[in-house]
Backbone:
């Protein structure tokens, strides 16, 4: 079984794109609101990521300017897509006063978040980590209701092939990884496989 590694050193061009994307992160109240909407409205059927882990990491990201997560391009890409997806459902919630202005431009903001995440995809394709699988998967999900089924299927296919390359489809008893990580891998694999198959059938019908 292939194991996921941590972030590797970035090239200058990658670092420039990463910093541009981090500068586009919303203020903390908006980030918390979008993630709560994302978790509430998009995770009833398919598994995308370990929610507790990501929420803890977001807290670290915003509170600690020296956090290694600020150098993790896969993490930043994944969170940007989560913001984009949250914006699609924002109108269904009553935000706090500090984020009420989000509702006036949520479609535009969602597209901004999406564009930033999309720009990072070439930089994470060869990175051996779960987030480099989760990010294109979520990009595919984001595009599904946007009448962009072809582009969505491309991202789904990328996520599926990366998942296969890193043996997420093989359920092995490996003592190196924790039970929690093993369960994350298992759920992520079946979510990617199931949604990619459904999307393929819709394209062929």
Residues:
């Amino acid at each position: 079984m292939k194991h996921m590694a941590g972030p590797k050193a970035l090239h200058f061009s990658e670092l420039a794109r990463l910093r541009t994307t981090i500068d586009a992160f919303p203020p903390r109240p908006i980030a918390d609101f979008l993630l709560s909407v994302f978790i509430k409205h998009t995770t009833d059927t398919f598994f995308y990521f370990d929610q507790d882990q990501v929420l803890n990491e977001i807290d670290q990201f915003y509170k600690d300017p020296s956090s290694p997560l600020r150098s993790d391009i896969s993490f930043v890409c994944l969170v940007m897509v989560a913001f984009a997806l949250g914006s699609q459902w924002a109108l269904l919630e009553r935000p706090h006063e500090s984020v009420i202005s989000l509702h006036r431009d949520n479609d535009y903001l969602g597209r901004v978040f999406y564009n930033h995440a999309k720009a990072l995809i070439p930089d994470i394709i060869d990175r051996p980590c779960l987030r480099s699988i989760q990010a294109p998967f979520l990009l595919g999900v984001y595009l599904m209701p946007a009448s962009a089924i072809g582009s969505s299927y491309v991202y789904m296919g990328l996520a599926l092939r990366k998942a296969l390359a890193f043996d997420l489809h093989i359920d092995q008893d490996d003592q190196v990884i924790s039970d929690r990580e093993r369960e994350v891998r298992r759920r992520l694999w079946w979510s990617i496989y199931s949604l990619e198959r459904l999307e393929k059938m819709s394209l062929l019908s």
User: Anything to note?
Assistant: The helical segments are 12-23, 28-42, 51-63, 73-88, 106-124, 131-143, 149-165, 179-204. DSSP finds eight helices and no strands in the chain.
